[in-house]
Amino acid sequence: MSPFYTFSAQSLNGTPVALSDYAGKLVLVVNTASKCGFTPQYAGLETLYKEFANDGLVVLGFPCNQFGKQEPGGAEQIAQTCQINYGVTFPMFAKVDVNGPDAHPLFKWLTAELPGWLGQSIKWNFTKFLIGRDGKPIKRFASITKPENMAGFIRQQLQS
């Protein structure tokens, strides 16, 4: 079994979620923030989710306040930003650290499996990690990569 399926996280409403619940799905893990220049990517992520959910894609949002303190609010404020401003319906999780000693174990694993420009750390909000249906990491996308520019690659992965 892939290590991905051994992780769990708290949903935005505080419920524990086993990532094994997403076994067999193509999973896009994103560290998010509500007050970032990339925050409008929520809309693009929602579009990807709606377009490909029936084919097996799920988007998982993990709010993080480590970059410019751009996710200062609590769960209720995060939910309002996501749902009211961007119509987000994909699963959102409780705020986590993605770098450093207190980083969520999922992000420690993801950055080890798919290092970026800064090695085993994340440079900024809206870094995206695509996990295959088998739970193996496929590709890391930078913050500047717009969700709509990922659609072709995601479609290809869903068809393979």
Question: What does this protein structure show overall?
Answer:
With 160 residues, the chain is an alpha+beta fold. The chain has helices spanning 41-52, 75-86, 105-113, 151-159; strands spanning 8-10, 16-18, 26-32, 57-63, 128-131, 137-141. A four-stranded mixed β-sheet has the order 4-3-5-6, with helices on one face. It has a two-stranded antiparallel ribbon with strand order 1-2. The protein is globular.
The major pleated sheet works out as:
4 strands, mixed
Percent helix range: 25-40%
Global outline: globular
Class by SSE composition: alpha+beta
Q: For the largest sheet, list the strands in their spatial order.
A: 4-3-5-6
**What gap, in angstroms, lies between the N and C termini?**
20 Å
Number of strands: 6
Q: Average pLDDT, to the nearest integer? A: 91
Query: What is the chain-wise order of helices and strands?
Result: EEEHEHHEEH
Gyration radius, to the nearest Å?
14 Å
* Residue fraction in strands: 15-25%
Low-confidence stretches: none
Count of DSSP-assigned helices? 4
